[in-house]
Design a protein that fits this description.
11 strands; N-terminal domain of TfIIb; alpha/beta; about 250 residues; 2 domains; disordered C terminus; globular; about 35% strand; Rossmann fold
Length: about 250
């Protein structure tokens, strides 16, 4: 399978930094509020490791399994982990995805942010089932959702613009419907000096969409509740075992 991030990995970490400003404290609140107090935390689709840092700071001494299928993104992730002695002691970087990852039992939390759309419906349902099977009592699965929730066109928009040294980096995004329950994102990235492009890269990838009620029904079929938490614009959803130890939402 081709790596959709092979040509864009150099841009992504700096371009998602602003999005993590509200996301990081919201995720930390969920993790510290969970009933489960032991077991590892699994970060699925760990990307460049920004979520790993949040998990590390929120849950001291907890082992973290950072699962990332992209070789390019994993290089950034591993460098971030290796550069910090405490992360290096606690974080294990695993090449894989939620389908081929060897899930441990008694997981304290599963973090799956910015990655649900990468999963076709069957794999998404498998994620719910894996979590229901392997979460410790009181454990949580944390996901986030964002529009579009149905196949629709997204007009081209600049999603990020960052200055580093003498250069500027920007990213643009657009999407088109490409199936009954999917869209195709078209991403463009550019490096500029004083407004003049120096290098650029573009990539397309499939993204499966579903309304929230569909996700909640799938989760319920696996024995999980599906509830919002935190500020609405962050889009966090917490899944816990139905009838098990639960998490209070804000």
């Amino acid at each position: 399978m081709s790596d959709p991030y092979e040509r864009s990995a150099e841009y992504l970490d700096i371009m998602i930094a602003d999005a993590w400003q509200p996301l990081a404290p919201a995720l930390a609140d969920v993790l510290t509020g969970a009933e489960a107090k032991t077991g590892a935390v699994v970060d699925l689709g760990a990307g460049s490791g920004r979520g790993v840092r949040v998990i590390h700071d929120a849950l001291p001494r907890t082992p973290i399994l950072a699962v990332e299928p992209s070789v390019a993104m994993r290089a950034v992730l591993l460098a971030r982990v290796h550069d910090d002695p405490e992360l290096r002691r606690r974080v294990t970087v695993i090449a894989g995805d939620c389908a081929d990852f060897d899930w441990p039992d008694g997981v304290r939390a599963v973090v799956a942010l910015n990655m649900l759309g990468h999963l076709p419906p069957a794999q998404r349902r498998a994620l719910w089932a894996h979590a229901a099977r392997h979460l410790a009592p009181g454990g949580v699965l944390v996901v986030n959702i964002a529009p579009p929730f149905e196949p629709t066109a997204v007009e081209r928009v600049r999603m990020a613009h960052v200055a580093v040294g003498q250069l500027e980096y920007e990213g643009w995004a657009s999407a088109r419907p490409s199936g009954a329950d999917e869209i195709t994102w078209h991403m463009e990235y550019r490096t500029l000096r004083r407004g003049r492009p120096l290098t650029q890269a573009s990539v397309e990838y499939r993204w499966w969409v579903a309304p929230e009620e569909t996700l909640a029904a799938e989760a319920a079929g696996a024995g999980l509740s599906f509830r919002p938490t935190g500020a609405p614009d962050v889009g966090l959803r917490v899944l816990t075992r139905i009838g098990g130890n639960d998490l209070s939402t804000s």
